[in-house]
Amino acid sequence: MAAAGVEGLRTIVLDCPDPRKLAEFYAALLGGEILEEESDGTWVALLDPQGRRLACQLAPEYKPPEFPDPQASQQIHLDILVRDIEIAEPAVLALGATLVQQHETFRVYRDPVGHTFCLEWQ
After folding, report:
1. Sign (positive/negative) of CA torsion 35, 84, 98, 68?
2. Domain range spanning residue 104?
3. Total domains present in the chain
4. pLDDT over 90, % of the chain
5. Which of 59, 63, 108, 118 could make an SS bond with 101 (beta carbons 3.0 to 4.6 A apart)?
């Protein structure tokens, strides 16, 4: 049961230096459409095909997380399910992601501004 007055999670928000560009990366990666954009370019939200919202917010002093970093955590990352890693990985790399680590059932990548995300398969 949610806390009184709370309806649920609305949006995951990622800080970045260029909200439109990062939103376009995730729209190409996940599918879906860009929903809204602040007129000053400080906020861009997208809706994925399953109805989840991901937004990109301007952070003028943005510094990408270090991963792996033995002295700090990555704070947040996205786990993305794929059917076939051998098909998904080249597509993700072509969009501008970089491979960080390979594991037996998942691989870790950085998006174009350094946020980590995983492609997982079963």
Report:
1. positive
2. 64-122
3. 2
4. 73
5. 108
Judgement on whether residues 36 and 7 belong to the same structural domain of the protein: yes
58 and 89 inside one domain = no
Write down the mean pLDDT value for the chain: 91
In this structure, which amino acid lies at residue 81? L
When pLDDT is cut at 50, 70 and 90, the band that residue 19 belongs to is very high
For the residues 60-74, what does the mean pLDDT come to?
A: 83
pLDDT bracket for residue 65 (50, 70, 90): confident
CATH code for position 86: 3.10.180.10
Residues paired with residue 47 on neighbouring β-strands, in sequence order: 33, 53
| Residue 33 sits in the same domain as residue 59 | yes
Q: Three-state SS string across the chain, please?
A: CCCCCCCCCCEEEEEECCHHHHHHHHHHHHCCEEEEECCCCCEEEEECCCCCEEEEEECCCCCCCCCCCCCCCCCCCEEEECCCHHHHHHHHHHHCCEEEEECCCEEEEECCCCCEEEEECC
